[in-house]
Amino acid sequence: MKSFLLILSSFGILISSLAAERPNVILIMVDDFGYECITANGGESYQTPNIDKLAATGVRFENCHVQPLCTPTRVQLMTGRYNVRNYINFGTLLRTETTFGHLMKNAGYATGICGKWQLGGELDSPQHFGFEESCLWQQTRRPPRYANPGLEYNGVEKNFKQGEYGPTLVNDFALSFIAKNKEKPFFLYYPMILTHNPFQPTPDSPDWDPTISSENKQQSPKHFAEMTAYMDKMVGRIVAKLDELGIRDNTLLLFLGDNGTNTGITSRFKGTDYKGGKGTTTSHGTHVPLIASWPAVMKQGRVSADLVSSSDFLPTICAAAGVAVPATVDGVSFLPQLKGAAGTPRDWLYTWYSPRQSQDMSVKEYAFDQRFKLYSTGQFYDLFTDESEKRDIAAIALATDAAAAKVKLQGVLDQFKDARSAELDREFQASGKGKNKTAKKGKKKQARTE
């Protein structure tokens, strides 16, 4: 009996030791926030001191690209699979998909999600996709998100009427989740509500009005800078809580944007004006900040020029946690780069983009590397000299490097020529989802901006 108890005790110690070695993981994704908005990246319009501090002591990536719009990015991020394989329409994540929530929960992690949902209106959506606890906006309804918001806590609707601010409430949930799970490994996915329009005052703005409860009041692009500062403040609160609890060192914190900045925002970036490109397939629509911080692993700040896709986060998070990744995942782990090794950097990125906010089924498909970009329709661009993709060079005599890149990228596109299941498109058409193309232009524009 004593031998059995000794074995049982030793087993318990081993399990505790393994759990202690596994890092906590926090994935923060900012809404409508391009690469140019971070001071550490060369941005000159906004104050991001907390994020800059993470970059100074962590790894700052220069070439992270996502989808041009939020739902396509979220589906790709959470499943690690290209949209060509599993995307059906705007606002939906197929319930048959496996997410990083499932994988981390099944591996013994406490899992939580807070912020913006927009992936299905079922009451159990977050829990169905592997998140044990949730605090979300735009799950079962679409109330105001900022002053006096409406949120769903584990699917239960709660309305706030006393001057509360949605991003602060969501951040409070995040801090509570972290504190509650400080003794065991946890995974927190934090898709922020900020900095998406409507551009309204924050509680730190001089014209903050705690009495409004409408997204149609006090709108002005000038508030984007204030919203960016408040977003950075929320990131700072997360870091401070980790420090307070003594768990900062073994927490992997990943920070990125979900697509380019709103087209109504022009920022200063490295001495020039930089117009937001959300919804476009140029770099202004897909190039986002990516900063990783993990003090136990990263001893000094580094910069990486490696290509990173939104599909790469699932395998990276799973690799950090020692979790097996399904064979169907397209993403490539960049964990070695986080640890200071060369890893296996991507030689190209692939995109299949068809947002399907209406019954429009047009597709933009392309492959690119750090310099060249090739669309499936044949357009070919040199991104070093033509960032806005205005000069198609496909028909001209190409230099040796351009010609080689075109052959390489065509090979990438050929890999995916049969990847799209016809059943997905039939299901979308049969569902009747997507707004009618004859809807009023104003309504279509609002849908696009979400």
Description:
By secondary structure, this protein is α/β, with parallel strands linked by helices. The chain folds into 2 domains: 22-348, Alkaline Phosphatase, subunit A, CATH 3.40.720.10; 353-449, no CATH class. 32% of the residues lie in helices and 19% in strands. The chain is built from 14 helices and 16 strands. The chain has helices at 2-21, 49-57, 70-79, 83-86, 100-106, 125-128, 166-180, 223-245, 283-286, 313-321, 335-338, 400-415, 422-431, 441-449, and strands at residues 24-30, 59-65, 110-116, 133-137, 150-153, 156-159, 186-191, 251-257, 266-269, 272-275, 287-293, 302-309, 349-353, 364-368, 372-375, 380-382. The strands form 3 sheets. The chain has a 10-stranded mixed β-sheet with strand order 6-5-4-3-7-1-8-11-2-12, with helices on both faces. Strands 13-14-15-16 form a 4-stranded antiparallel β-sheet, covered by helices on one side. A two-stranded antiparallel ribbon has the order 9-10. β3 (110-116), α6 (125-128) and β4 (133-137) form a beta-alpha-beta unit. α7 runs parallel beside α8 (223-245).
Q: Per the principal axes of the C-alpha atoms, what is the gross shape?
A: globular
Going by CATH, the architecture of the largest domain would be 3-Layer(aba) Sandwich
- Main beta sheet, described? 10 strands, mixed
H/E element string?
A: HEHEHHHEHEEEHEHEEEHEEHHEEEEHHH
CATH superfamily of the largest domain: Alkaline Phosphatase, subunit A
**Count of helices?**
14
The whole-angstrom Rg is 22 Å
Structural class: alpha/beta
Count of extended strands: 16
Query: How do the strands line up in the largest sheet?
Result: 6-5-4-3-7-1-8-11-2-12
CATH topology of the largest domain: Alkaline Phosphatase, subunit A
Q: What integer is the average pLDDT?
A: 93
Kindly state the percentage of residues in helix: 25-40%
- Portion in strands: 15-25%
CATH class of the largest domain: Alpha Beta
